[in-house]
Every structure is written in structure tokens, then in C-alpha cells.
Amino acid sequence: MIPGKIPEKSAGTAEKKRFYRKRVNFFALINKIKLWPSRRGVLHGIQSIQIRGKTATIVTHCRKSFTVVESRNSRAARWLRNKWFAGACPQCNIPRWKQEKYSATYFRKRWGSQLKALD
Questions:
Q1: Which of 13, 28, 80, 95 can bridge 115 by disulfide, Cβ–Cβ 3.0-4.6 Å?
Q2: Number of domains in the chain
Q3: DSSP secondary structure of 73-91
Q4: Contacts of 80 (CB under 8 A, 6+ apart)
Q5: Nearest-10 crossing angle of helices 75-82, 26-33
Q6: pLDDT tens, residue by residue, 37-91
Q7: Is residue 12 a part of any domain in this protein?
């Protein structure tokens, strides 16, 4: 089993595929998914996000707070698009259904929701 990958469901259960554009506004994507991959590969649940221009302050469910810069080429953006993570944070307590939904999300260049920019 690959770390961070959710095992496939049994036959007969249809999973709804979700498509987002690959180059959407990074903060809109984070606000929609509500997940953040740390540098060690741990997936955290986002409790709140405050956007201030090109930066945002993110507070996770495990009470960690940090500031991020809007970048579509950043490590976190690539990890979210490629769905890489080593495991879920035990303190954030991310439900299984949310991890499965995250694993079933696809990013396409010319197809999917454009996630309107946040004001």
C-alpha cells in the first residue's frame, strides 16, 4: 500500500469524479478543499483562512497558524494537485470521507470548475 493513498472501494460503488482547473486561484482552491499538506507530508484540515492581498493566514484544526504566499507553482500547490501526502494529522482528525473525496479529485488544464476568485 502506498502511503497517503486511499484503498479503492469495492466493485459496485460509484465514486463521483470532481474536476478543477489546474491553474485556478490558489487561495480559492485551498478555501474549497480545506486541506493543507505540510512540508513533512502530513495532511492538515483547515479551520480558517484569512486572505490579505497576496498572503493568507491559515489556522488548522490542530491550532497551528502560518502565513502563505499565493503561488500556483509552490510546493503546497503541486502537492494538492498531485494529491501527495504521507498521512493525515491525528490531531486534525480528518474524516475518512474527506480523504476519499480528496483522492477522487482531478485537475485538468482545460476542464473543470474555475472556482471564482475570493473577494
A1: 28
A2: 1
A3: TSHHHHHHHHT--SEE-TT
A4: 29, 30, 33, 35, 37
A5: 50
A6: 999 989 999 999 999 999 999 999 999 999 999 888 888 888 888 888 888 999 9
A7: no
Q: Could you list the residue range(s) of the whole structural domain that residue 102 is in?
A: 18-106
Q: Determine, yes or no, domain membership for 6.
A: no
pTM: 0.71
Residue among 30, 114, 113 at smallest CA distance from 77: 30
Is residue 77 a part of any domain in this protein?
Answer: yes
The answer to whether 86 and 3 have CB atoms below 8 angstroms apart is yes
Q: Which three cell numbers stand for residue 109?
A: 488544464
Report yes or no on 115 lying in a domain.
no
Residue at 57: amino acid letter: T
Name the 3-class secondary structure at 42.
strand
Q: What is the pLDDT of residue 66?
A: 93
Q: What is the pLDDT of residue 108?
A: 62
